[in-house]
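Entry:
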Amino acid sequence: MSFPEPRYVKTNGLNMAVYEQGQGTPVVFCHGFPELAYSWRHQIPAVAAAGFHAVAPDQRGYGNTGGPKGQENIPLYDMEHLTDDLAGMLDALGIDKAIFCGHDWGGIVVWQMALRHPDRVAGVIGVNTPYMPRGNFDPIAGMRHLYGEDMYIVFFQKYGEAEKLLDADIERSMRFWYRKSGMTLAQYDALPAEMKNFAFLNGFQAPEESWGGTQLLNQEELAYYTAAFTRTGYEGGIGWYRNFTRNWERSADLPMKIGVPCLMISAADDIVLRPEATNGMENYIADLEKHIIPDCGHWTQAEQPEALNALIVDWLKRRFA
């Protein structure tokens, strides 16, 4: 499918690649890991056709934007930088306020935009990723306690190891991530505990035929992701994970409540970002609408694009047209 060519804007020390379509109220799409602006390829034309200005950046460390490398530069991937990047992008595009839509890590970023740059945010759409107020303990310590050292986010804390493994065969790593499991949440919950610790190494290093599920990307899509990550490697994207502790330490003074209209779209069978994780969001967001897409795992934009587009466009038209 055709995808817009990027324009490049200067923001926060980056030459950020931004992909745009349509005119009207701006809607900024923020990707997660290991994703790209291209991950919104099904949503951008639908939102543009509905009368909105769709804007999707390759964010810090990714795609045609890229970012600094080296262990000393890990703090440059913290939440302050990720949100300042987007505020600077709005400045460069001449946009005062936008609706922000994020999936996976991009979901964390868009909720944080509403706390850190509330004057730039007209509304928030969370795809899979719920709003989670700051907890009482370091999240990495919590994940290590719950799941152990093999859990993928804990493993990612070891500088140099994960990226070396993933960069060795980019196309294989993309086939590993982008799968439709074919398993419902209930089936997953019935698995033995040792199969539910989100261990990365064992799964990734196992033979491909043991991965389960089905490949989500067609050859054209697989080639696009492979080329993009071949250019950048995984280091920048993993850098976001390496700031969980820093982000927690530096966010104690942020507000907890969000005062703009928000839409939360969950996927019924996402084993990482489960629908019930949205319980309690109403305590922090007064204007909140919630939906669950059935027969959908983690990669909602690609697994159920029509259902996702319908929910996004309907809400945008009702609240911002």
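Residues 138 and 249 are 8 Å apart (CA to CA).
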